């Protein structure tokens, strides 16, 4: 766990406890849908701009705080985020509000990274595409008894440009449509009790 800086954290490593207000303290990472590591990353980005350790940052610093997280956001997007948390007229953003604004962006980034990891499992020849041969190998490794026709059908379903293989972009779009965690489908039913 990262060392606490400034006046943050007190006895807790999860956020601000010296504010005297419950609104200044973040909930658990599970509550907002981020891992402990992601929460730490968001907290550190916030702390860069909360120089007086008040648990707030100036609205003008939001763009830079998001840049510290690796996101390039436009003023219009910041205005929309502020509207979404009912803070259109406020000049400051509380830590928990920043977490609320940052969470969807961090989750989307991580989802793409996870999907690309799965893509690389299929793309064992590093061709940046999933071919029939790649799909056949993965099906065999997972113990799936799929016919060649079924495998071709799977490729055709994802192959938007009809080139006979699935690109990274096509794979990402299919996986995003399918749901939350692309790794869920890779685990065998036999692994569960």
UniProtKB/TrEMBL annotation:
Gene3D superfamilies: EF-hand (1.10.238.10). The keyword Repeat applies. Residues 37-72, 110-145, 146-181 form the EF-hand domain. CDD domains: EFh. Keywords: Calcium, Cytoplasm, Cytoskeleton, Repeat. One of its GO terms (cellular component) is myosin II complex. Belongs to the centrin family. This is EF-hand domain-containing protein. The lineage of its organism: Eukaryota, Sar, Stramenopiles, Ochrophyta, Dictyochophyceae.
